[in-house]
């Protein structure tokens, strides 16, 4: 559920409402796109955790 709920946030951080590719930046003087990278990283981690949980459930149901 977390992976599903974070997806709109990830999409909005990579693309502007007009449809052009523009990453959200920090707004500081240096202005790096760290918030976008953090959201994408968290999304990938949540997907991996979901797959890990699914494999755990499948193995438990098989009796391993």
Q: Helical element count?
A: 2
Q: What is the count of β-strands?
A: 0
Strand content: under 5%
Please trace the helix and strand order, writing H or E for each element: HH
Largest sheet: none
Structural class: mainly alpha
* Rg for CA atoms: 16 Å
Average pLDDT for all residues: 92
Give the distance, in angstroms, between the N- and C-terminal Cα atoms: 26 Å
**Low-pLDDT segments:** none
Apparent shape: elongated
The amount of helix comes to 55-70%
Number of domains: 1
Provide a descriptive summary of the structure in words.
This protein is 66% helix and 0% strand. With 64 residues, it is mostly helical. It has one domain.
In short:
Helix content is 66%, strand content 0%. The chain is an all-alpha fold.
Draw up the topology in text.
Elements: H1 2-14, H2 34-62
Structural features:
64 residues; mainly alpha; 2 helices; 0% strand
């Amino acid at each position: 559920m977390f992976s599903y709920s974070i997806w709109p946030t990830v999409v909005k951080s990579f693309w502007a409402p007009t449809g052009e590719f523009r990453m959200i930046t920090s707004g500081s003087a240096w202005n790096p796109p760290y918030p976008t990278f953090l959201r994408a990283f968290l999304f990938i981690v949540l997907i991996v955790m979901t797959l890990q949980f699914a494999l755990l459930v499948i193995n438990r149901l098989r009796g391993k």
